[in-house]
Amino acid sequence: MPDVIVTSLANLQNEVRYGENHILITDELVAAGGEDAGPDPYTLLLAALGSCISMTTTLYAKRKAWPLERMTVRLRNERTHAKDCVECTRTTEGYVHRIQRAVSFEGELTDEQRARLQEIAHKCPVHKTLTSEIVITELT
Question: Which pLDDT does position 6 carry in this prediction?
């Protein structure tokens, strides 16, 4: 996987370079001190997860030759105090991020196919990454 290079610009804006010649601008909302010139970091995180869910599920449906015409992934991120998180077992202090998602499918799919696609949606690589231990180290 190629490097992603982030360079600060003005105020809270950043230039993100990736791949051969791809560039995007990130920023924060005006309410957070930015200029809303591009997606904020959490929007990018949700976009990565939603894109992975869509790609993984679409590839599965194609392999099975199922009539999936289109899918939509809607995501939301909320930050909750760990002490208020009923289902949390590992984190007891600080904050917990709760990502909620809704996946819908269009096409002449059976109820069984829709149920299986919902299962596959939980198996995308980004979902697995976000739900496993993550170690961040210095790049050499």
Answer: 94
From 50, 62, 105, select the one nearest 39 (Cα to Cα).
Answer: 50
Q: How far apart are CA 14 and CA 7, in angstroms?
A: 5
Q: 81-109 burial, b for 16+ CB within 10 Å, e for fewer?
A: eeeeeeeeeeeeeeebeebeeebebeeeb
Element (H, E) at 47: helix 41-64
Report whether pLDDT(56) > 90. yes
The reply to whether the predicted model has a pTM over 0.85 is yes
Number of other residues whose CB lies within 10 A of the CB of residue 5: 11
Tokens 């929007």 -> residue = 43
Q: CA–CA separation, 60 vs 89, rounded Å?
A: 32
Q: Please give the CATH number for the structural domain made up of 40-140.
A: 3.30.300.20
pLDDT at 11 over 70: yes
d(Cα 83, Cα 105) in Å, to the nearest integer?
Answer: 36
16-48 burial code (b ≥16 CB/10 A, e <16): beeeeeeeeebbbeeeeebeebbbeeeeebbee
